[in-house]
């Protein structure tokens, strides 16, 4: 018990936390003597025959405790005659006789009563006994009616208790189902977020891959251009080395550039015969790879100057032939890049088709589960079996049509690839025209593949939405069925 009233209302959560942690409460005195823990008390025996144990006040063998133990153990008490003079039960009596006092009884004993009066008293005694019996009978009937009414009340209360227990069980089950549903919804939301993040990462990786492929193509073309320039300069160096000194002029004309930067570049970047050193070639290639294909104005001017010099030195036919060869080479690399992109798109399409098949399979299973639950709820097994057979036939037809269309598209692509073979023995003009047509076809094919992949992605998203919706419907129907079964059972 608390010694005084607390100043403020206690916080029950904080008190329970203190109790769980085992903190000792303040201002509490306990006078409880029920089942104490006695470890350091000397043991005393109540009776010599029993075992040694601590003796409480209620265990001492006095008359009062012995009588209480007999009452608790159910000892049959002896019959006791009482001299009760409380108000009697007089229901059912027709004749009331006043009870005599002690003085009247003594006076009656002293007086001598006649024989007629004695006979009358005996008759009165018979009437009294009959009246007592009748009153006793009425009291017993009243007691029986009370007992029957009590039994009826007990049965009604017992039924009420059973109904309340079943209602409590149903509420508990409903609460558990709602908790499970909330957990499933949270899990579904997290999975949707993860799938969306994975899709974004995949799109980002695809874009990065495309940019890297384009940069690779540019660097490859630049490397080929550098090799061609190096070969031309080496050829020029050899031509200058085998110079005809007899027909050489006495004093060569030296032309100085307008800016000093060009002079230093000529001196450091070119050898005596005009050939660049390995260090200069590596410097130019690294600078081009860092700039990612973006040429500075000075480099573009140098390339234009070198190309103009080549065109001036060589014949126009040879220049045109080299230009055609360069364009043919560019077209072949472009076609090869398109083919690589088409292969990647086909792989992506195959993965998307596998996802569609898996989702269709899961959706079919969920629909079967939903239909089985609907059969149990509606009790219409025959009608639902007929509808199931019809729907299964329709699904099989759709799958066959899809596989046929896929086989046709693959066969058409293989035929186009066979027809797109490049013959190197043809002339450069014919090869250029053929390669341009092939490049356009490959570009259109890649675009159609990407478009088809977008459609497949949309189909995958739609199947995911249908699957989640079907699962929610199955879960709600299962909850309704469980609640109905709980109410019936």
TrEMBL record:
Q: What is this protein called?
A: WH2 domain-containing protein
Coiled coil recorded as keyword? yes
What InterPro entries does the record point to?
A: WH2_dom (IPR003124)
Q: Where is this region: Disordered?
A: 285-322, 370-433, 466-489
Acidic residues bias (residue ranges)? 299-318, 386-428
Is Coiled coil among this UniProt entry's keywords? yes
Q: Which UniProt keywords apply?
A: Coiled coil
Molecular function (GO) terms for this protein are:
actin binding
Q: Which segments does the entry list as coiled coil? A: 133-236
WH2 domain boundaries: 63-80
Instruction: Provide ranges: composition bias, Basic and acidic residues.
Output: 289-298, 370-381
């Amino acid at each position: 018990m608390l010694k005084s009233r607390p100043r403020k209302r206690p916080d029950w959560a904080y008190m329970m936390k203190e109790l769980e942690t085992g903190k000792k409460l303040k201002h509490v005195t306990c006078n409880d003597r029920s089942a104490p823990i006695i470890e350091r008390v000397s043991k005393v025996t109540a009776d010599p025959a029993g075992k040694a144990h601590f003796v409480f006040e209620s265990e001492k063998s006095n008359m009062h405790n012995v009588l209480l133990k007999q009452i608790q153990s159910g000892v049959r008490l002896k019959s006791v005659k009482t001299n009760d003079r409380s108000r009697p039960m007089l229901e059912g009596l027709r004749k009331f006789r006043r009870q005599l006092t002690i003085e009247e009884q003594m006076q009656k004993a002293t007086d001598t009563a006649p024989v007629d009066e004695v006979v009358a008293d005996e008759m009165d005694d018979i009437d009294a006994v009959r009246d007592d019996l009748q009153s006793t009978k009425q009291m017993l009937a009243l007691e029986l009616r009370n007992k029957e009414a009590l039994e009826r009340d007990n049965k009604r209360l017992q039924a009420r208790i059973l109904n309340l227990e079943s209602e409590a069980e149903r509420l508990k089950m409903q609460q558990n189902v709602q908790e499970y549903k909330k957990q499933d919804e949270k899990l579904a939301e997290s999975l949707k977020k993860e799938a969306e993040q994975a899709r974004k990462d995949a799109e980002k990786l695809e874009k990065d891959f495309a940019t890297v492929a384009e940069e690779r193509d540019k660097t490859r073309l630049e490397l080929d251009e550098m090799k061609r320039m190096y070969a031309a300069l080496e050829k020029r160096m050899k031509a200058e080395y085998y110079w005809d000194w007899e027909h050489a002029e006495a004093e060569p004309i030296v032309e100085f550039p307008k800016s000093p930067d060009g002079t230093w570049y000529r001196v450091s970047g070119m050898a005596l015969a005009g050939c660049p050193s390995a260090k200069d070639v590596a410097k130019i290639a690294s600078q081009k790879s860092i700039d990612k294909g973006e040429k500075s104005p000075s480099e573009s001017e140098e390339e234009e100057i070198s190309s103009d010099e080549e065109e001036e030195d060589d014949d126009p036919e040879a220049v045109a032939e080299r230009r055609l060869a360069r364009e043919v080479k560019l077209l072949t690399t472009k076609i090869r890049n398109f083919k690589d992109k088409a292969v990647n798109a086909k792989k992506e399409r195959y993965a998307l088709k596998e996802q569609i098949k898996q989702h269709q399979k899961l959706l079919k299973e969920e629909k079967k589960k939903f239909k089985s639950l609907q059969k149990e709820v509606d009790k219409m097994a025959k009608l639902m079996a007929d509808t199931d057979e019809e729907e299964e036939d329709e699904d099989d037809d759709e799958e066959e049509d899809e596989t046929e269309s896929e086989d046709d598209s693959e066969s058409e692509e293989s035929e186009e690839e066979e027809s797109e073979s490049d013959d190197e023995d043809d002339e450069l003009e014919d090869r250029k025209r053929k390669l341009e047509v092939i490049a356009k076809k490959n570009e259109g094919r890649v675009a159609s593949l990407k478009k088809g992949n977008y459609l497949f992605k949309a189909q995958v998203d739609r199947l995911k939405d249908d699957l989640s919706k079907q699962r929610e419907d199955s879960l709600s129907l299962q909850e309704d069925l469980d609640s109905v079964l709980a109410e019936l059972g």
